[in-house]
Amino acid sequence: MTDDTTPAPHGFLWGAATAAHQIEGGNVNTGHWELEYAPGSAIPEPSGDACDSYHRYPEDIALLADAGLTAYRFSVEWARIEPEEGVVSRAQLDHYRRMIDACRDRDVEPVVTLHHFTFPRWWEHSGGWYSDRSTDRFRRFTEICTRILDDVNWVITINEPNMMVNQTEARIDTENGVNFPGPSPHVARAIAGAHHASTEVLRGFGGVKSGWSVANQVFQAVPGWEAQRDEWQYWREDFFLEQAREDDFIGVQSYLRTIIGPTDDAQGFGPQPWPEGTERTLTGWEYYPEALGHALRHTREVTGGIPMMVTENGMATSDDRRRIDYTAGALTAMQDAMDDGCDVRGYLHWSLLDNYEWGSFRPTFGLVVVDRETFVRTPKPSLSWLGDLARRNVVPRR
């Protein structure tokens, strides 16, 4: 199979993404660590040392830069920076500032996420999003982080708020994709309040562009079930897209589609199982790279057309050739959406490293293999393939 290419816009960011808890290791002060090691935990595998990227981040950034990529999305860990409420670790802030400096030294644009799923234990134990102090707490955390963001251009406040609505209930459903048994509008509004407080802080801080990233699940309808599809997706996606209308940009995260139709349960409608024979990824999701184009168009429609960045897109597979095929298809869909008028500023692949996928190391999304015993990094062909596109600043058309 051969690819034609289309030039990407000048200044387009090409990169890869990670999250602190999934790669750093030793995040002992997070609520997630507490769940991983709780007696009788339902989490199959703890994060442990993860990829030891807390110590090895210079090597990770160098791998990305040497391949030709120009952006690295990573998150700062709230549980490290504020281990007890009101107690700020200057040493941990300095650690993340060194990560920003390591990116700058390699001419890599840092895309910093303030919150990527994990909370300090004290947050979990003091009400979480149900506390009437949640907005003020996240505002204060944002203010703390601004101490190290003076030359950072892109900040994501909260990763996938729609996946956090019922985080303890959220799961990867290998039959139907990512699903919630029932999202909480109360928590959704609380998260939105925290996001708006955070962007207000960042807007007054300087030239930083801020927004959040939303997991776009490409809700499609069985013919005749469009109204039910719209009802299903509002609190699972569209509410969060609406909240971004005044932001500087929005992160679009796309992996799959979800088809809504009739079910036998009390609600009477919901995600449909994929037909037998559908190609599945290691997370059990449908192989559907075209989802990214749908996600970008839908996000533009709901947000009113604010700038977008693809902040996550990838495939869990042990076959790197299939990863390249999937990514080429997704990039083609992205370019088609851009040709239709979508304002896309960059593409960040998930993930730079094979990492901890919230319960297991088995789903391998990475451009780089990490040996679980020695932590030796081995680039996959997909890293050089994507880096070549970045060096030439072209998008494949397949």
From TrEMBL:
GO terms for cellular component: cytosol. One of its GO terms (molecular function) is beta-glucosidase activity. Its EC number is 3.2.1.21. InterPro entries: GH, GH_1_N_CS, Glyco_hydro_1. It is an enzyme of class 3 (hydrolase). Keywords: Glycosidase, Hydrolase. SUPFAM superfamilies: (Trans)glycosidases. Belongs to the glycosyl hydrolase 1 family. PANTHER family: GLYCOSYL HYDROLASE, LP05116P. This is Beta-glucosidase. The gene is bglA_4.
